[in-house]
Specification:
Helix content is 32%, strand content 22%. The chain has 399 residues and is an alpha/beta fold. The protein binds zinc ion.
């Protein structure tokens, strides 16, 4: 993962609360890629960056993603499926019959994984729960976001079968999250999957069910009573099935994290997903923020993420002072910091965070931003093309 920043950093005049209840500005000090103090004075020799009242949040945790599946154009099919297996059959058909789709499938996997990282980073995500094999590129020191490494997972009962699902659960330590797609549909088969997981002995405090569209009130109560959690992906649910999981009761019990799934079915990024979540469940700003910070870190058992406290990783998202997460888009993002190192944001912060040679001017959705030059160079070399991200410096591109 990202090398530690070498010089201590203190961010001053940061707003740490919700916009509607903003208290006095505070400061956060970072040494060796971790927060060492909150509400402190800068120490001699620190790099000091004045946030001038902008909001400082923990880097967001995207609780469900398939990082290699984000280069596809959206599949236009309408919300007509009863069960995820029918949608998977549709995707398989496209891969066999649609040459453009096939070309994306056949692109080098490391390129596609890098694309998935950029999708997340630009939206303020610094940690991703990737639901596929932990490919070597994902733990490479240069990979732009952190990927959850300590988890067990199975795809689903439909794909893996009961024996493999049970084996996956049994070999996962009980203090490590175990994650599975389940109840992803609106038919009886989807509705019965929680019972099947419970009968297999796979429903316990470390279980995280992704989707849960078919869970009824009783099922959700059993999930919460077991100490398990739900990873909610409302954009994907609505696109495939025309309805999302019901989550209000589970949110109230602190058992929900938010994930994007991949762009094959989900939102374009986690900020968009938050808007969909707000519309789908009517949650307030504080509840929405918890789904991608404190709750997601807790359910994924990431003890050093999701809050701004001493000892936590120095992963940050900076937003304009009055902007809530569900109002923001990636053009609004003022700064994304991973391990004390700025990777993306606005030019004024880039100037304060490092020398001019470290940054490249880009546009994101028509807004002038900067990207860390090393990352921009990697994207260019790998031929990653993220819609909306443009490198206007043609001379640099040709170099
Ligand atoms: Zn998924």
């Amino acid at each position: 993962m990202t090398p530690a920043a070498t010089r201590a950093l203190t961010l001053i005049n940061a707003s740490l609360g919700m916009p509607a209840h903003r208290g006095a500005a505070s400061s956060v000090r970072v040494v060796d890629a971790r927060i060492t103090a909150v509400g402190c004075e800068p120490q001699p020799g620190d790099r000091v960056v004045d946030l001038e009242g902008d909001r400082l949040l923990p880097g967001l945790v995207n609780a469900h993603e398939h990082l290699q599946l984000n280069s596809f154009p959206p599949l236009e099919h309408g919300p007509r499926f009863r069960n995820v297996r029918a949608w998977i059959a549709e995707v398989s058909l496209r891969a066999r019959t649609d040459a453009a789709f096939r070309a994306v499938v056949d692109a080098p996997r490391d390129r596609r994984l890098l694309h998935g990282a950029v999708k997340n980073l630009l939206s303020g995500v610094t940690t991703v729960a990737h639901h596929d094999p932990l490919y070597p590129a994902l733990t490479d020191a240069g990979y732009p976001v952190r990927v959850v490494e300590h988890c067990g997972w199975s795809h689903s009962l439909g794909i893996d079968g009961e024996a493999q699902v049970r084996h996956s659960y049994e070999r996962t330590p009980r203090d490590v999250p175990w994650i599975i797609h389940a109840a992803e549909g609106v038919d009886d088969e989807a509705a019965q999957e929680l019972d099947r997981l419970e009968a297999l002995g796979c429903l316990a405090g470390n279980t995280l069910i992704v989707h849960g569209v078919a869970l009824g009130e009783a099922g959700r109560a059993r999930l919460a009573d077991a100490g398990a959690g739900l990873v909610w992906c409302p954009a994907s649910n609505l696109r495939l099935f025309g309805r999302s999981a019901e989550v209000a009761d589970l949110v109230a019990r602190g058992r929900v994290a938010l994930g994007t799934d991949s762009r094959l079915s989900g939102a374009c990024d986690l900020l968009h997903e938050l808007r969909v979540a707000r519309e789908a469940a009517g949650l307030d700003d504080a509840a929405l923020q918890a789904l991608v910070t404190g709750s997601s870190a807790r359910l994924l058992r990431l003890a050093d993420r999701g809050a701004l406290e001493p000892g936590m990783l120095a992963d940050f998202l900076v937003l304009p002072r009055s902007r809530t997460l569900s109002e923001a888009d990636r053009g609004d993002v003022r700064m994304v910091v991973v391990g004390g190192r700025m990777r993306y944001g606005d030019r004024d912060y880039a100037r304060a965070m490092g020398p001019a040679s470290q940054w490249l001017d880009v546009t994101v959705d028509g807004r002038r931003k900067v990207l860390e030059r090393e990352l921009a160079d990697r994207l260019t070399r790998a031929h990653v093309t993220e819609p909306g991200l443009e490198f206007p410096d043609a001379a640099w591109r040709a170099a």
